[in-house]
Task: structure prediction
Amino acid sequence: MCSSDLFPSHDMGAFPEALYKVQYPAKGSPELALETKFLVKSTPVELNHDWGLDHGAWTVVRHMYPDANIPVLQISIDYGKDTKYHYELAKELFELRKKGVLIIGSGNLVHNLRMVAWDKLNDTTWYRDWETDRKSTRLNSSHEFVSRMPSSA
Result:
């Protein structure tokens, strides 16, 4: 988890040159990072003060907070873990929401474009099935539908 002042990481390829010139000088929050480290019990959380702000974060946050006037932390997900693992992690992070911390899961919006099945962009069968399941469990406050969401979705 990055915790100190952040610089945008441009660790991507084959995009227009203008994208590599974008700057987003976000401030980190070592205090919040440390609090998060001790809050999460299900997995070790390591603090990193040298890693830049990944494009999975700055490409989204810069449109919401263009003046970079809020502290930003980023947490990497573990691609080796399933949806249920990440849902359990999210439940731990929910304690931060109670304190007014905004949590955004944005990496999937801008990562792994090589893995997109461009020929299946209009196939929403997986989503319709998941949405039906979500609606039916919402009435009894169950969140089990999340753990049944396909990891590839």
In short: The chain is about 40% helix and 0% strand.
